[in-house]
């Protein structure tokens, strides 16, 4: 018999064999994890750590300047605190006193009147000017900048002082209304008309919502207007049936934002109404935040002011919730939902 020939594989043949470079399977047929897989969680942790480090300035600012003061203010709302002595816990006495205060109820009425009248007028002016600027005209960039400028300077103290001078006795507005046949007298000294001077100032600052409206109008397809015009729809019909439904999300955003801003009005009301009284003659410009300032810093009733601030927060939250609930009925999105 011939001797059996034993073939010894060479290293090259062994390396070329499929699966030769793979690690041997563990008992039970389970292959051990690769080294790259073990390093992936470590890399993810490093990325998360880097993200938190970049966010740390904002987190620190939020905790120290927003969340922290809000928590302290919530505690002060249930205490008797005057900024000089240690706060003393009194429970719900601040809220009971607040609801029974006639000036507090007046501030709620003045603020509600300002929000209900000023916000729609401001948005109407912004939408009207945006419709005009949406048309192709020469010098369009200049007009956009000119109409937007009041939003940049309207909240300044200097503009509020000038506005107060314009509506004073014998000033430009007084002389203009006399020419038109109205009774003489400035608006600043009249408790019934000073609030309208404040509303006129906020309407004048329509630049910010105007820019947002203009951006929404640019997204409306021109084909819709052309098709409606071919069907015989007039300008008003095209506005109500095409423009408003198409820009309803932008309109909702502006309504929400301007309503919240109206509740927070303070600087212009305090400056325009500061004429012997911090909040206008006979509390004509006694908006909510103005009375909050009077209680907190002029009367040193910081506990009561904190309670008023939290009531304002709850009121704004309630109005915001109602607006979000109502959007299902009149806000139309591209997907067809409401």
Overall description:
Residues 1-36 have a biased composition (Low complexity). With 338 residues, this protein is an all-alpha fold. It has a domain at 108-157 and 189-285 and 316-330: MetI-like fold (Orthogonal Bundle). The protein has helices spanning 11-16, 35-76, 93-99, 102-133, 140-153, 157-166, 172-179, 194-204, 207-218, 222-230, 235-246, 248-263, 267-273, 288-298, 302-330; strands spanning 79-80, 88-89. It has a two-stranded antiparallel sheet with strand order 1-2. Helix 4 (102-133) packs across helix 14. The longest helix has 42 residues, at 35-76. The protein is globular and about 75 Å long. Residues 1-6 have low confidence and may be disordered.
Write the layout of secondary structure elements.
Blueprint: H1 11-16, H2 35-76, E1 79-80, E2 88-89, H3 93-99, H4 102-133, H5 140-153, H6 157-166, H7 172-179, H8 194-204, H9 207-218, H10 222-230, H11 235-246, H12 248-263, H13 267-273, H14 288-298, H15 302-330
Antiparallel strand pairs: 1-2
Helix pairs in contact: 3-15, 4-8, 4-9, 4-12, 4-14, 5-9, 6-13, 9-12, 12-15, 14-15
| CATH homologous superfamily assignment of the domain at 108-157 and 189-285 and 316-330 | MetI-like
Strand content: under 5%
Please write the string of helix (H) and strand (E) elements.
HHEEHHHHHHHHHHHHH
- Structural class of the helices, strands and pairings? mainly alpha
Into which percent range does the helicity of residues fall? Answer: 55-70%
């Amino acid at each position: 018999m011939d001797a059996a020939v034993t073939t010894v594989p060479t290293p090259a043949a062994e390396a070329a064999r499929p699966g030769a470079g793979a690690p041997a399977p563990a008992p039970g047929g389970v292959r051990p994890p690769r080294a790259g897989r073990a390093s992936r969680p470590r890399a993810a942790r490093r990325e998360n750590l880097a993200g938190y480090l970049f966010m740390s300035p904002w987190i620190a600012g939020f905790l120290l300047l927003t969340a922290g003061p809000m928590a302290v203010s919530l505690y002060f709302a249930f205490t008797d605190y005057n900024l000089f002595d240690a706060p003393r816990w009194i429970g719900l006495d601040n809220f009971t006193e607040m609801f029974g205060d006639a000036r507090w109820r007046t501030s709620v009425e003045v603020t509600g009147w300002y929000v209900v009248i000023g916000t729609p007028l401001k948005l109407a002016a912004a939408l009207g000017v945006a419709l005009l600027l949406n048309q192709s005209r020469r010098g369009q960039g200049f007009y956009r900048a000119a109409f937007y400028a009041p939003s940049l300077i309207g909240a300044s103290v200097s503009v509020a002082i000038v506005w107060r001078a314009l509506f004073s006795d014998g000033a430009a507005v007084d002389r203009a209304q006399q020419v038109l046949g109205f009774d003489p007298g400035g608006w600043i000294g009249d408790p019934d008309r000073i609030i309208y001077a404040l509303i006129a100032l906020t309407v004048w600052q329509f630049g910010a919502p105007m820019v947002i409206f203009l951006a929404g109008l640019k997204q409306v397809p021109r084909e819709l207007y052309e098709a409606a015009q071919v069907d015989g729809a007039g300008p008003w019909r095209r506005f109500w049936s095409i423009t408003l439904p198409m820009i309803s999300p932008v309109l909702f955003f502006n309504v929400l934002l301007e309503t919240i801003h109206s509740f927070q009005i303070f600087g212009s009301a305090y400056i325009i109404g500061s004429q012997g009284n911090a909040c206008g003659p006979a509390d004509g410009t006694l908006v909510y935040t103005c009375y909050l300032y009077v209680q907190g810093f002029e009367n040193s009733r910081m506990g009561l002011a904190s309670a008023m601030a939290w009531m304002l927060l709850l009121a704004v939250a309630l109005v915001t919730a109602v607006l979000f609930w109502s959007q299902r009925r009149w806000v139309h999105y591209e997907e067809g939902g409401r």
